[in-house]
Each structure stands twice: as structure tokens, then as C-alpha cells.
Design a protein that fits this description.
- This is N-formylglutamate amidohydrolase.
- It holds the Pfam family FGase.
- InterPro entries: N-FG_amidohydro.
- It is a single chain.
- The protein has helices spanning 37-41, 50-60, 96-122, 160-176, 195-202, 223-245; strands at 11-18, 65-67, 127-138, 141-142, 145-146, 151-154, 182-184, 208-216.
- The chain is of the alpha/beta class.
- The protein has one domain (11-245): Aminopeptidase.
- It has a six-stranded mixed sheet, sandwiched between helices. Strands 4-5 form a two-stranded antiparallel sheet.
- The radius of gyration is 18 Å and the shape is globular.
- The two termini are 17 Å apart.
- The relative contact order is 0.18.
Length: 247
């Protein structure tokens, strides 16, 4: 999707990714998870609902989607290679050679696919800005405390273009789904170690906006209501892109 300014031949392009879309364990590592079935089904194993949301956004807005379904307990695709937490307590004890094999087979292919998709979008005629939306979800209760955020928009507040877009998206989402608690940089901060933060290092603020869309998994419990709310997220994103790209 490329909202276009009526005043100039410029456009925004959208890229959708999902780093924690499933809890699949590659056959080579299944024995490691024989005693961890419950953990795989939990929020530590994957982001429930995130891939479905990513697919809806991509399909509705005709945007490319780069998604992954290998469990984050094998390797966390939303961590940089230098992060000490990219491997879980299950795979961290593996040999250096085996961990490098995991990076080669499951981590780097996803990151490379995202970078290629970004490059293709930036090469399109008239495209000035790529908006990257990474779809995630989070557990409703953390360390015994119930989280009040329904939808979190994570970004880097030091980038004026991202801060401005976050305000617009939040405003549009509150207008379309006033029952949702939509917060900026909650329940996490948008500038910590991760994919969008790493891509910001390589791309100028005027050309790349990196957002993580965080959905409270509590919303998934009411399927009918969640379908309506998901559509509101997409409509709000569409409206925000139209507004931001026309200024």
C-alpha cells in the first residue's frame, strides 16, 4: 500500500513482519523440547494472534509480509545477533557450532528476507518512506500484575517522524475503537534491542519508520469482538498513513 500525497509525487510503502508467529520446533531440536510442551504453548513460546493480525494487515493493504513460525525458544528473531538473550535457556547450553547452525538456518534467513523486502520497497518509483509494522502480542498478566494496555504502539521517540506517526495512529485507533486502551511505548519500550532498532541504525529517519504493534492477548478471548477490533487497527493504520503521507 502506498498512500500518495496530492501535492507531490511521493508515497509511503508498508512492510509487515511477524517474528514470533508460531511455536514450531524444527525436527533437529525436538528432543530438547520433550519436557517443555506447556512452555511452548505459553507466551514464551510464541505471540498468539500476531501472525493472523499481520496477515490481515498485509492482505488488506496489499503489503509484503515476512513472517516466521519457529518458536522463539529456539532463537528469538526479535533480538540482534549480539544480544545475550537471543537463545533461550533450552538452546543456550548447545555448542557454539550448533548455535551458529541455528542462526544460519532459522535466524539469518528471516532477517535477510526483511532486508530484501525493505530494499525492494525503497527502490520503487516515488517511494520516499517505508513504514515497517512488526506484529506482536503480549501476555495480559506479568509478574502477578494485570496489564492495562490493550494495544501498544512501540517506536523510538527520538525520531520525530515516528513520534508524530504514533500520535496519529493512536488518535485514529481511539476514534475507531474507543473501548481499547491504546498506549504509546507500552507495555514495552520501542527503542530496546530488536529488529526495528537495528534497522534504524542503517536507515535514515526520513526513509524508515519502525513500529512494533503489541496486542494484549486478552483481546483474543472474545473472537467476534476481536475480529472487529482487528479491522479497526487496520482502518486506523490506513487512515494514519494517508494523513502522514499527505503532509
Amino acid at each position: 500500500m502506498s498512500p500518495r500525497s496530492s501535492r507531490s509525487e511521493t508515497a509511503w510503502a508498508l512492510l509487515v513482519t511477524c517474528e514470533h508467529g508460531g511455536n514450531r520446533v524444527p525436527p533437529r531440536y525436538r528432543a530438547l523440547f520433550n519436557e517443555h510442551g506447556q512452555l511452548l504453548q505459553s507466551h514464551r513460546g510464541f505471540d498468539a494472534g500476531a501472525l493472523a493480525t499481520a496477515r490481515l494487515i498485509a492482505r488488506t493493504l496489499s503489503a509484503p509480509l515476512v513472517g516466521a513460525t519457529v518458536t522463539r525458544l529456539v532463537v528469538d528473531l526479535n533480538r540482534t545477533e549480539r544480544s545475550a538473550t537471543r537463545f533461550s535457556e533450552i538452546t543456550r547450553p548447545l555448542s557454539d557450532e550448533e548455535r551458529d547452525r541455528i542462526l544460519q538456518d532459522h535466524y539469518r534467513p528471516h532477517w535477510n528476507a526483511v532486508r530484501r523486502a525493505l530494499s525492494r520497497l525503497r527502490e520503487r518509483p516515488h517511494v520516499t518512506t517505508v513504514l515497517h509494522v512488526a506484529s506482536h502480542s503480549f501476555t495480559p498478566v506479568w509478574k502477578g500484575c494485570e496489564r492495562r494496555t490493550d494495544i501498544g504502539l512501540l517506536f523510538d521517540p527520538q525520531r520525530a517522524s515516528e513520534a508524530r506517526f504514533a500520535r496519529i495512529w493512536q488518535r485514529e485507533l481511539r476514534r475507531l475503537a474507543p473501548e481499547l486502551a491504546v498506549h504509546r511505548n507500552a507495555p514495552y519500550r520501542g527503542w530496546t534491542d530488536g529488529m526495528t532498532s537495528e534497522l534504524r541504525r542503517a536507515l535514515p529517519a526520513a526513509r524508515y519508520l519502525g513500529f512494533e504493534l503489541e496486542v494484549n492477548q486478552r483481546l483474543l478471548h472474545d473472537a467476534s469482538r476481536w475480529r472487529r477490533q482487528r479491522r479497526a487497527i487496520v482502518r486506523a493504520l490506513t487512515a494514519a498513513m494517508e494523513i502522514a503521507s499527505s503532509r
